Amino acid sequence: MADFVGALDQGTTSTRFMIFDHGGNEIARHQLEHEQILPRAGWVEHDPTEIWERTRAVIQSTLNRANLSHGDLAALGITNQRETTVVWNRRTGRPYYNAIVWQDTRTDRIASALERDGRGETIRHRAGLPPATYFSGGKIQWILENVDGVREAAENGEAVFGNIDTWLLWNLTGGTDGGVHVTDPTNASRTMLMDLETLDWDDQLLSFFGVPRAMLPEIRPSSSPDPYGVTRADGPLGGEVPLTGDLGDQQAATVGQVCFSPGEAKNTYGTGNFLLLNTGQDLVRSKAGMLTTVCYKLGDAAPVYALEGSIAVTGSAVQWLRDQLGIISGAAQSEALAAQVEDNGGVYFVPAFSGLFAPYWRSDARGAIVGLSRFNTNAHVARATLEAICYQSRDVVEAMREDSGVSLDVLKVDGGVTANELCMQMQADILGVPVSRPVVAETTALGAAYAAGLAVGFWNSTDELRQNWNEDKRWTPTWDEAQRESGYAGWRKAVERTFGWVDVE
């Protein structure tokens, strides 16, 4: 068998390809950013064709850097930004419209109407999700209703839908020349269109959004010994490699963090933050603003479920300090600037740029910086930005405890922001539990590799994967309880100030 597994990690701001060995060690990687298209307030789009071009480029560059070829890869896994919606023509391969990104809020009227007329309760029960702009169903409906010719093309089977995993799988396996149209339950569970119990598209849910079933991909296991397809010899890998793993990015990180037992949790710090708690084969329906989602489905085994707390803006708030405010030149500088002051100086920043996700689900909220006085400096704003990441995570942990009864002993963390050691210390202080970062911090790509490798016997079991996990660093709380609760009370007061800022019909 070949010595390595490849993982394509297509994220909100960039695309990377990584190669791992049997020990879960990174062999090589290459990463490229893509354009963030912002046509108007609340709208966020990507160019699917640019994403495919970036995908080709990062795969080729990574193989060249490692001096490897397709024959060195036992399998290929894909992980992706979830909910981001692409509709394209299966005959020409051209998208009808830009990809509508998970952060986009243009579908707020669709979500509000579902909630108003009672359909929201059906969606919560069957799909495990509240009606929200976050998910794919409303985005598909918007394209069907607002882009000329798409409704007719969908009815006659020419227009097809996919999240980014489906778009890339289709292109990697031939596109217009035999490309496979598939997804997995972790991605399908983010659409508001799949029944969590049957793991199949639900006709009543489809009717809520006016989505023809013919548009939708086949739902296959997240790790499939029967490959979804093989890469094309004329594609970026230059030969046939079985595609056997497909996981939404946050579920992939959960697998990469080897959270295979009920009660184990991880928090990924990326563009947003996403905390997942493995609930095993128990489908826990949230009463506290969490999402019920599929964690993974490995081959023929029963699906494993999770509770998820999704936070829209965390790492992208740091990016906002750089790109929109210009008070830092790079993400790494946020740590040095924030460290110039001992505390936030009374400043709280709630980055509700696209409303608030878990546990609030308030599309009428918008970002606010509160508590300012002339004493405050850009260092206080930088510190408040890092604290916002941590306080939003605490909101989710509190809601998850309410739903599951599970109190965390330790929080496993991963993603780019974990390189900010001040932020991770703040997280331990604000939560009151230790925070643990693994040696391989890019666990999203690693999880996709694990899913693909398990399918072909590159790894034999999840127990074998556990042996690969090693701690790199641990942060323990230094705040006392009074400091922790005082800070959190200020945060909750600041969050309330963001509510009702925009009118939602």
TrEMBL record:
Keyword Repeat appears in the UniProt entry: no
SUPFAM superfamilies: Actin-like ATPase domain (SSF53067)
Catalyzed reaction equations: glycerol + ATP = sn-glycerol 3-phosphate + ADP + H(+)
Pfam families assigned: FGGY_C, FGGY_N
Domain spans labelled Carbohydrate kinase FGGY C-terminal: 266-455
Keywords, sorted A to Z: ATP-binding, Glycerol metabolism, Kinase, Nucleotide-binding, Transferase
Annotated positions binding glycerol: 82-83, 134, 249-250
GO cellular component, one term: cytosol
Enzyme class: transferase
Protein residues bound to ATP: 12-14, 271, 315, 319, 416
Residues where sn-glycerol 3-phosphate binds: 12, 82-83, 134, 249
Residue intervals of the Carbohydrate kinase FGGY N-terminal domain: 6-256
Metabolic or biological pathway: Polyol metabolism; glycerol degradation via glycerol kinase pathway; sn-glycerol 3-phosphate from glycerol: step 1/1
Annotated EC: 2.7.1.30
An example Gene Ontology biological process: glycerol-3-phosphate metabolic process
Regulation of catalytic or functional activity: Inhibited by fructose 1,6-bisphosphate (FBP).
Similarity field: Belongs to the FGGY kinase family.
Protein function: Key enzyme in the regulation of glycerol uptake and metabolism. Catalyzes the phosphorylation of glycerol to yield sn-glycerol 3-phosphate.
HAMAP family hit by this protein: Glycerol_kin
NCBIfam families: glycerol_kin (TIGR01311), PRK00047.1 (NF000756)
Protein name per Swiss-Prot or TrEMBL: Glycerol kinase
Gene it is expressed from: glpK
